[in-house]
Amino acid sequence: MPPPTLDIGSAEALLIVDPQVDFCPDGALAVPGGDEIMAGINSLAERFGLVVVTQDWHPADHRSFASNHEGGIPFATVAMPYGLQVLWPDHCVQGTAGAAFHPAIAAGALTRAQLVLRKGHDREIDSYSAFFENDRRTPTGLAGYLRERGVQHCVLVGLAYDFCVAWSALDAVAQGFAVTVIKGLTRSIAIPGPDGIATDIAADRDLAAAGVQVIAAA
């Protein structure tokens, strides 16, 4: 049986998640191979009429940064009022070069974007998903925007597969959208999760359970 492919005719919106310098090699929170997907994302964006790009946009004193916790260790977890929080290296700080879009995206897919959505700007709450902050109660407004545009099916690509892409995909399904993730146009951080399962494996499991279609390529 051939692998599933993407039917662009039924996929009304492309959501490009956090294609930023800090998530690429030599960035503050580098995702292995993060830069390798940018050309493919640009090509894919040319096939969509509606493109949305998200941008991590943290204040320097963001509580998800290990540096803002006494004795904080990057990639450890701490209890926050909204649940367990991974402590990250400082990344995507507002106005810095690391928060900028990867140059290939800035010259390509970004020029087609009808919406750029910044997230993670509240110092007290991290925001992986494009739809909700990590308290799972505070919406970004993206679901309403997509509904008003008549979108029924979202296609997701970007960084990182096992955090912001996966959380966005799960929330999109919960909001009633059909969702496809093109895994070949994502990359994973792949760290041990709180349950001992690597985060990329857990993302595979959770997306399948939620009915998200994950395909290798478009």
Which key terms come to mind for this protein?
nicotinamidase; Rossmann fold; metal-binding; alpha/beta; Isochorismatase_Nicotinamidase; 218 residues; two-stranded antiparallel sheet; six-stranded parallel beta sheet; 5 helices; nicotinamidase activity; 8 strands; Isochorismatase-like_sf
Task: Tell me what the structure shows.
The protein is α/β, with parallel strands linked by helices and 218 residues long. The chain has one domain: Rossmann fold (3-Layer(aba) Sandwich). It is 21% helix and 21% strand. The chain is built from 5 helices and 8 strands, in the order βαβββαβαβαβαβ. The strands form 2 sheets. The protein has a 6-stranded parallel beta sheet with strand order 5-2-1-6-7-8. Strands 3-4 form a two-stranded antiparallel sheet. A hairpin with a 2-residue loop joins β3 and β4. α4 runs parallel beside α5. It is globular, with a radius of gyration of 16 Å. The two termini are 17 Å apart. The mean pLDDT is 95. InterPro entries: Isochorismatase-like_dom, Isochorismatase-like_sf, Isochorismatase_Nicotinamidase. Keywords: Hydrolase, Metal-binding, Pyridine nucleotide biosynthesis. This is nicotinamidase.
CATH overall fold name: Rossmann fold
From the spread of the alpha carbons, the general shape counts as globular
- Structural category: alpha/beta
Rg over CA atoms, rounded to whole Å, is: 16 Å
Strand order of the largest sheet: 5-2-1-6-7-8
Question: Count of helices?
Answer: 5
Protein name: nicotinamidase
Domain Isochorismatase-like: 13-183
Enzyme class: hydrolase
Pathway: Cofactor biosynthesis; nicotinate biosynthesis; nicotinate from nicotinamide: step 1/1
